[in-house]
Design a protein that fits this description.
By secondary structure, the chain is mainly alpha-helical. The chain has one domain: Hydantoin permease (Orthogonal Bundle). α1 crosses α7. The longest helix has about 45 residues. The chain starts with 11 loop residues before the first helix and ends with a helix.
Length: about 425
């Protein structure tokens, strides 16, 4: 049925809160790295520009949904482009959470090993300091059991906790800006306006703002769901999310400038205990978000291959969950550099899902000529999105073939100086 047949119960404020929650996630730890790649000035412009573009694409996505009377992203794309559109979207909707889960494993490997080395005084080459061992144990003991839940509503309650933790980490990042001023050498050019890694930065930023897969759910939950109310919620949510993301970027970049890693926590020293608390808290939110992404991936696979032919059953549920958890583990052993994983997810999945498809769908279902005033922004969005996705994918592939570099879990060189002036 169409939208008119029901109305949710969430107020504008509640919906905005869930919206921000849906945007602010693990992507925030990559924002300082995006500023390092694009250059400080250019990076900040991109962060604000992407907030505006994301806002616009979310508004036209729902507008297209209302125009076609569809209530899910899949139905909308199918209404516009038929089955080819549906399958393309299905593929993207699989890739996005799948790579997100790989990035979560990389983060778990980054953070937990450092904390264990600190708490249990294990050496990095012992089993508790081995990231693959840590990630497989985390998978088997935490994320797999949580992912086996068939009902996701229990997990969604956790999202409030996650947001609070991320805001606390933001507080930590901002408060600690000063402590690295002396320790981190400021290199010439560390505040360059623009740098050559713009496409990499765009991938990371697109990943950070991504929330389109939840937009229809948020709209359906809104009390009196009209386009005007949705636009209002979108503007509020994107403005506040943009503030949080920009603060993460500035806080991280001002602290570490050209040394900013794809995983901001890699920049803090192993013996920095407040950072270790932040690491543990962040790992907790990651482990609780993983099952939600797993749920999405499983649903997509289920809808693509089984639903029409076989009813759902427990055995298949368990096998699919095991398959997803083990494959994401296997992929996460290929690299310990979070930056490249975020970039790839940005260009392969986030940009098509968040910018190209909403714009293309809107152009298709909205009445009027292609070059009318109403459609020109969407046309530009689709064209630019496609260009960025193609360039970004090429750059990422070239990067991977050249060998990806990051700190590989080693302490940064400024940690090795006498600890007295860092921990004060």
């Amino acid at each position: 049925g169409g939208w008119h047949s029901f109305s949710g119960t969430s107020s504008l404020l509640q919906t905005s809160f869930n919206f921000i929650n849906s945007i602010i996630g693990s992507g925030v730890v990559g924002v300082a790295y995006a500023l390092r790649q694009a250059g400080f000035g250019m990076g900040l412009i991109l962060l604000i520009m992407f907030a505006v573009v994301t806002d616009y694409s979310l508004c036209i996505l729902i507008k297209a949904g209302i125009a076609t009377g569809t209530s899910t992203y899949q139905d909308l794309v199918q209404a516009a482009f038929g089955l080819p559109g549906f399958y393309m979207l299905t593929f993207m909707q699989f890739i996005y959470p799948f790579i997100a889960m790989i990035s979560y494993n990389v983060i778990i490997g980054d953070t937990v090993t450092k904390v264990f080395v600190r708490i249990f005084k294990v050496t990095p080459d012992s089993i508790l300091g081995n990231r693959h061992f840590i990630v497989i144990m985390a998978s088997l003991l935490v994320t797999l059991p949580l992912s086996l839940h068939r009902n996701i509503s229990k997990l969604n309650k956790v999202s409030l906790v996650s947001l609070i933790i991320i805001l606390a980490i933001l507080g930590f990042v901002v408060v600690r800006i000063g402590t690295f001023a002396d320790a981190v050498p400021s290199l010439p050019g560390s505040y360059m306006f623009a740098d050559k890694g713009i496409t990499k930065a765009i991938g990371v930023i697109a990943f950070a703002y991504m929330c389109h897969h939840n937009s229809f759910l948020l709209f359906a939950a809104l009390k009196d769901p009209t386009q005007r109310r949705w636009n209002k919620v979108t503007h509020i949510s994107l403005a506040l999310s943009c503030c949080i993301i920009v603060l993460f970027g500035i806080g991280g970049y001002v602290s570490f400038n050209v040394y900013s890693q794809g995983d901001l926590f890699e920049n803090y020293c192993k013996d920095d205990d407040i950072a270790n608390v932040a690491r543990l808290l962040f790992t907790l939110t990651i482990m609780l978000t993983y099952p939600i992404e797993c749920f999405v991936t499983r649903e997509v696979l289920d809808n693509a291959f089984f639903v029409t032919r076989f009813p759902s059953n427990l055995v298949r549920h368990i096998i699919m969950t095991l398959f997803i958890v083990l494959t994401t583990f296997a992929f996460s052993t290929l690299t310990d550099c979070l930056g490249i994983v975020l970039e790839l997810n940005g260009v392969l999945a986030a940009i098509p899902l968040a910018y190209i498809l909403p714009a293309a769908t809107y152009l298709k279902v909205e009445n009027g000529p292609l070059l009318s005033w109403a459609k020109i922004p969407a046309l530009m969005l689709a064209v630019c999105g496609a260009a960025v996705a193609i360039c970004g994918t090429v750059v990422s592939i070239l990067d991977i073939s050249a060998g990806v570099s990051c700190s590989h879990g080693a302490d940064m060189h400024y940690c090795i100086v006498p600890a007295a002036n860092i921990t004060t």
